[in-house]
Amino acid sequence: MPANYCIGQWDVALTDKGRKQIETLARDWTAAIPGEIVCSDLHRAHETAQLISGHLDIPCSVDKRLREINFGDWENRSWDDIYRQDPLLMSRWGENWLDTCPPGGENVRQLYERVGESLSQLSSNTLVVAHAGSLRAMRCHLLNTSPQQLFEYTFEHGVPLQS
Question: All domains of the chain, ordered by start, with CATH?
Fold first, then answer.
């Protein structure tokens, strides 16, 4: 999937490169071993969690609330195409992404709320395998910051977040 595509909840698989990165991460694990893994049900997160779970020999469960943001009708389309088709909505979304929903999708506030529900049920010894958007929302909750600060946090794919 090219980098300039909107994938959100589009259920793409891990690439071979991603799979190798996760296998290396799990094999070379040096952090404390978590008591469990909870992951998004989207294939790329679930496969990641399964690979880590197998190497660390810990249970893994799925929580749909950890999914990436739902971009609705924008899923699996280039951002350029989305902008060309509906520049007014893209402009509104760019100005107020917190409350503006893509057609058939959800806004960032909804993502923040659903991730918060999941977070409230996790133990402190849980490894979460999710997506940049849902992890950003989780970080906002953990740091007690507004969801408006969501994009202040960045993540590299396949790199663990240190607390």
Answer: 5-152 (3.40.50.1240)
